[in-house]
Amino acid sequence: MEKIMKCLFMICGILTIVFVALITIFLVASGIPAIRTIGLSQFLSSTVWAPTASNPSYGILPFILSSVYGTCGALLLGVPTGILCAVFLSKMSPAKIGNIVRNVVDLLAGIPSVVYGLVGMIIIVPYVREVFNLPDGANLFSAIIVLAVMILPSVISVSETAIKAVPKEYEEASLALGATKTESIFKVVLPAAKSGIATAIVLGTGRAAGEAMAVMMVAGNVANMPKLFRSVRFLTTAVASEMSYSSGLQRQALFSIALVLFLFIMAVNIILNVVIKKGETK
Amino acid sequence: MIKKITIIAATFALCVLTFIGCGFGTESNNNVKADSMQTISTDGSTSMEKVIGFLSEAYMGEHEGIKVTYNPTGSSAGIQAVSEGRCDIGLSSRELNNEEKESLDGTIIAIDGIGIVVNPNNPINDLSLAQVKDIYTGAIDNWKDIGGTDAPIVCIGREAASGTRDGFEEVTDTKDKCKYNQELTSTGDVVQTVAGNPNAIGYASIASANDSVKLTSIDGVVPSTETIQNGEYKIQRNFWFVTKKDKSLSKAAQEFFDFATGIQADSLITDAGAVPVKR
Predict the structure, then answer these.
(1) Nearest CA in chain A to B142
(2) C-alpha neighbours within 13 Å on the C-beta side of residue A37
(3) A14 contacts B12 by C-beta, under 8 angstroms
């Protein structure tokens, strides 16, 4: 019995490896042919995406840059807000209010992305249009706002855990030396929790870069080079919006986009992991 | 340690093999199934996906043991496929050219009417076909140029692979020339966006334009089933079934053909967002 269960556990563990391996193999195998046909440099650096034009062009630089800008923008807005909220929850809030906020954050995490998109489309897009006096509000800025809200829950809950894991004595020692509460938090507690906070940023990056549905509904989806108040298309939305109709080289090129996105997220994870490891060994 | 690695490797290999095995297994099963069923294969226009989907679904529901397949390759590829005998019925959203007409027959099964929608608060009620073209190519970029308020025009369209976009750009002669502010992935999104932006203009199949937007008339013709059927409304195109002249359809395919061109298919075609042909 013991042996059977052990076997079962191991098989389940190995299954995840199998899935990752299968996805990687599939993406590489189906993504390479189009890149070969189009040419890697043409594919990555051309600024024109027009797969159905009579003279088709397959350049995904606008998608790559839009995804990078969108993700960075969302992190810029979402990470500071999230960390400060986590500080509030773990250090400042009275127990009652803290519980309410925590529950609301959990709820926020559970909202499906299509709902974020819908709310963004109906509220944020018209609002952005009016506030900035633009002809149209579906642009990179709206996408950044929606993404920033979407990454908040993971940033908050992971950084709160990290902050709570910092030994109380650190803060007490700092306070005893005469530092104010704010000083203690920013100079002692947050630096001590930095590896956990870095994990929160990784999670946020993954969520922002990988989101398709909500972005598709608020970003306008035109394959423009990104500008803050211009309609843009992300890597994810490029795949999602054309997949159902495409055929031939266009379809293969969509697999290649997925491969690029996959490598992009892998790279972010690896880089941040290395950074965290370095921080820990110091 | 080495033993452990061997075990892990063996399990991994086993899992992969199982997966591959499963893959092959289901594939051959499908083939066996398809052989015992009568298959009617259609191939062609991606714009006809919905129409053919509604028709084949209803037909398969009524006829046990018949399978209607659809291969979305594009009109020209569909015409090519039927002329080479690779499918029973070719689907085309363009008319056959003279060369193709020598060996192939085209039958109109439905009409695709594309409506131009604007925000209900927009004073514009009528546009000419030329104005629509100028708006979408960027030659006209302010509503005041065509008698509206002084506000920039926001062009809402569909993604590059969309059949509606293909049809719209074909009729208005704006292929690859459109300057879109937004490319949305569904008709519903287009209607929603136009409803939310007073400066927006969009195109959508007539059936899906609801009260939240205003359908403009084109050259004074209000789009409706009648004006589309008699050809007065200009932004429309036909959906064709393409068959070979020298080779008659199989019995099952002929029955499906009759079903799709018969009067009972009208409501299905309407449900699919197209306009049935006039009888």
Answers:
(1) A135
(2) 14
(3) yes
* Count of Cβ atoms closer than 10 Å to residue B27 Cβ: 9
What does the block give as tokens for A147? 């993404």
**Tell me, what CATH number does A215's domain have?**
1.10.3720.10
Q: 């893959």: which residue's tokens?
A: B23
Please determine, looking at this structure, whether the domain spanning B113-229 carries the CATH number 3.10.450.50.
no
Beta-bridge mates of residue B204 = B115
**Minimum distance, in Å, between the CA of residue B226 and any CA atom of chain A:** 30
Q: What residue ranges do the domains of chain B occupy? A: 113-229
How far does the CA of residue A276 sit from the closest CA of chain B (Å)?
29
β-pairing verdict for B89-92 and B217-218? unpaired
Which residue of A lies nearest to B166 if distances are taken between CA atoms?
A52
pLDDT in tens, B206-255: 877 788 999 999 999 999 888 998 889 989 988 999 999 888 888 889 99
Residues 6+ apart with CB under 8 A from A38: A58, A249, A253, A256
**Which residue range forms the structural domain that includes residue A213?**
2-281
- Residues A223, A139 contacting (CB under 8 angstroms): no
Put simply, the answer to whether A18 touches B8 (Cβ < 8 Å) is no
3-state percent breakdown (helix, strand, coil) of chain B, nearest 5: 45, 25, 30
Is the distance from CB of A49 to CB of A223 less than 8 angstroms? yes
Using a pLDDT cut of 70, give the percent of chain A over it.
Answer: 97
Quick: pLDDT tens for B79-123: 888 988 889 999 988 888 888 888 899 999 999 889 999 999 999
pTM: 0.75
Q: Is residue A210 a contact partner of residue A263, using CB atoms and an 8 Å limit? A: no
Token pair belonging to B22? 């499963």
Confidence of residue A268 (pLDDT cuts 50, 70, 90): confident
Q: What is the DSSP string of A2-31?
A: HHHHHHHHHHHHHHHHHHHHHHHHHHHHHH
Q: How many residues does chain A have?
A: 282
The encoded tokens of residue A82 equal 């999230």
CA-based nearest residue in chain A for residue B74: A247
Chain A positions touching B182 (Cβ under 8 A) are: 136, 138, 220-222, 231
Q: Which of A222, A233, A246 sits opposite B161 (nearest CB)?
A: A246
d(CA A23, CA A261): 13
Contacts of A220 in chain B (CB under 8 A): 181-183
Question: A235: helix, coil or strand?
Answer: helix
Name the β-bridge partners of B155.
B201
Helix (H) / strand (E) element for A108: namely helix A95-110
Q: Say how many domains are in chain A.
A: 1
User: 3-state SS string over A217-229?
Assistant: HHCECCCCCCCCC
3-state secondary structure of B218: strand
Q: What is the mean pLDDT of residues B42-48?
A: 84
